[in-house]
Amino acid sequence: MNKIISAVFISLMLSLVITAYSENVQTDLQDNLIRLHIIANSDSDKDQAVKLEVRNAVLNEIRNSSENISREEIIKNLDTIEKIAKDTLKQNGFSYDVQAVYGKFDFPKKEYKNMTLPAGEYYGVRIILGNGEGHNWWCVMYPPLCVSNDTTVTLDKESEELLKATLKSETYDIITKSDKDVVIKFKAVEFIQELKQKIKKR
Residue 130 — φ and ψ, nearest 5°? Predict the structure, then answer.
């Protein structure tokens, strides 16, 4: 009986440690990243194509507006982002509406070329085109890691240094490195965050 109690106690303590570790990593990501999420009107070829045109226009504005755009500037300029999306749709012959909102949203695990973000809640700018019933596109808007000509995100030297300066070293290693110890830690974070998402949906 004592062995059973000890085993249960150890399992409980281990679960608490893993959960606390996962929450610390996720909080660091939440506090320092802003995701960009663009949802197409539908999955038709035309709606999917114009979604990418909107993506390009928004990212070009972000790059051109400031060399070191901040979280505050992004939030303050939501109306501008929305207008850019509307103008892009109009230029391409589309008349449906656009809504740009900032908030905390659930994101699934996302793998980029040399970076993987675990599933979880992130702050983000969500751009909903028309009915918002089509496949979406997302990346990291702040720090500015998005590229406008591809669906991948590659960490160049500048982006790498920016992420290193923004995140805790442990968090940075977890999302960018693939050695055995880091992979185990990532799996622990991923398991807890995905479990939280499943519980929320019940």
Answer: 60, -125
pLDDT for res 194 = 61
Question: How many CB atoms are closer than 10 A to CB 95?
Answer: 8
The answer to whether residues 116 and 186 touch, using CB atoms and an 8 Å cutoff, is yes
CA distance 30 to 37: 15
Q: Radius of gyration (Cα) for the chain, nearest Å?
A: 19
Burial grade of 11 (CB within 10 A; 0-12, 13-18, 19 or more)? exposed
In this structure, the number of other CB atoms found within 10 A of the CB of residue 13 comes to: 10
**Helix-strand-coil percent breakdown of the chain, rounded to 5?**
55, 20, 25
Check if the beta carbon of residue 26 is closer than 8 Å to that of residue 118: yes
Q: Exposed/middle/buried for 160, CB within 10 Å: 0-12, 13-18, 19+?
A: middle
Total Cβ atoms within 10 A of residue 126: 18
Q: State CA 39 to chain mean position distance.
A: 14
The Cα–Cα gap between 103 and 75 comes to: 10
Beta-bridged to residue 198, according to DSSP, are: none
Angle among Cα 158, 79, 154 to the nearest 5 degrees reads 20
pLDDT digits (tens, 9 = 90+) for 38-79: 999 999 999 999 999 999 898 888 777 655 567 788 888 899
